[in-house]
């Protein structure tokens, strides 16, 4: 989705920043397009909380105007291998990753997170929202699809004071949604993204070292291999 705002330098934009490879690349794209970034990360009780430290590093690297980390404990609801005592799947074949919705799906997570991003955007007067969702190399999450993003954008303009009164027209930018992981990495390298700052693993050890076998690690490693580049992260195995 292209907004006319991209033609204006330093227009405020809010980015949902997880600290992962995709959100870091999205942040670099937004900054390259001239937006002044307001980053939002969420501590939702995820077992891979090391991504929040990565988000801090990435926010600093893209010169975010402000970086807010909110606490919304979805672990109290459970229902996901990322927030509950459910084993994270390891060494799944590629076909299995795109077949059905995995146990790492966090119920309504992106809807919750995008609602928080929307509130932040309305507060800082930003009509542009950037999200690093991807519908190609992903693990079957329903809230990463283009039709979901389009529906939420309609909601954003119906459910906010700024949208209803015409003060802002919310546009949700998803520059990675139709790219493979390799294409994402190549684009990030072009923009100078330092992927050593990021974290992708769903099940790191107590020191934050990536497992190398969960879906997120496999997709990341595959992406770097297909891009012909070395992943700067170290893995347990």
Description:
The protein has about 240 residues and is of the alpha/beta class. It has a single domain (about 10-225), classed as 3-Layer(aba) Sandwich (Rossmann fold). The chain is about 35% helix and about 10% strand. Helix 1 (about 20-30) crosses helix 7 (about 180-190) and helix 7 crosses helix 8 (about 215-225). The protein is globular and about 55 Å long. About 40% of the residues are buried. Mean pLDDT is about 90; it is low at about 1-10.
Relevant terms:
237 residues, Rossmann fold, five-stranded parallel sheet, globular, disordered N terminus
Topology:
Elements: E1 11-16, H1 21-32, E2 35-43, H2 50-61, E3 66-71, H3 94-97, H4 109-124, E4 128-130, H5 146-158, H6 161-164, E5 171-173, H7 181-190, H8 215-227
Parallel strand pairs: 1-2, 1-4, 2-3, 4-5
Helix pairs in contact: 1-7, 7-8
Query: Would you identify the regions where 5 or more consecutive residues have pLDDT less than 50?
Result: 1-8
CATH fourth-tier homologous superfamily = HUPs
Question: So what's the overall shape?
Answer: globular
Q: Beta-strand level of the residues, as a percent range?
A: 5-15%
